[in-house]
Amino acid sequence: MVYFVLTGLYSFYLNKTQTKGAIFECSPITKMVTNHSETVAEWFGYDIYTDQNYQELSLMFMVNEKYVVKIVEGCTSISVMILFLAFIIAFTGSLKHTVIFGFVGLVLIYLTNIFRIVTLSLIIYHYPKYQDVLHSVFFPAAIYGMVFLLWIIWVNKYALINKKVNE
User: Fold this and answer.
1) What percent of the chain lies above the pLDDT cut of 70?
2) Which residue from 16, 78, 86, 119 puts its CA 20 to 30 A from 43's CA?
3) Sequence-distant (≥ 6) Cβ neighbours of residue 162 within 8 angstroms
């Protein structure tokens, strides 16, 4: 139920904040993720430029004046965060642990996602022929691997279901 409510709220948000038509504009969350990725990539000494692609619902991510990747809503990891939260609420723990672990988990997923975008962009900049395998296999494994690890920690340390079984 939590998953469906959060997904519905997020869909409503996207419908209100994205513009599709003669000119496209991404949601503020997509812009924020892109801006944070830009900042982190610049830490590695690259000249990064990002801008709205007015031809489609994406942001252009350019490395040293080369258009490398497009960042779309699916790159924000919000859907993964919703799935994470739904899981820890479904396998409930104490309110205190749920709030703290939920917050820390969301931050870790967000940071993992930013570094995933940056790493993917920089590798594609240097090795464009590996784009398909990196984008479709390796990098989803990174973000979903982080979520799976957090779920394992949650169930083994904080979920009340584990305590009921062991008592």
Assistant:
1) 96
2) 78
3) 155, 156
Q: Which of 83, 92, 73 is nearest to 29 (CA)?
A: 73
Q: Is 127 helix (H, G, I), strand (E, B) or coil?
A: coil
Task: Yes or no: say if 4 and 41 are a contact pair by the CB < 8 Å rule.
Answer: no
pTM: 0.91
Which of 119, 140, 12 shows the shortest CA–CA distance to 74?
140
For residue 48, count CB atoms less than 10 angstroms from its CB and return exposed for 0-12, middle for 13-18, buried for 19 or more: buried
CA distances from 96 to 42, 74, 100, 101, 163 (A): 37, 30, 6, 8, 16
- Cβ(55)–Cβ(27) below 8 Å: no
pLDDT, tens only, 140-167? 898 999 999 999 999 999 988 756 545 5
Phi, psi dihedral angles at 66 (to 5 degrees) = -110, 125
Contacts of 81 (CB under 8 A, 6+ apart): 106, 109, 110
Nearest CA to 59 out of 27, 81, 22, 15 is that of 27
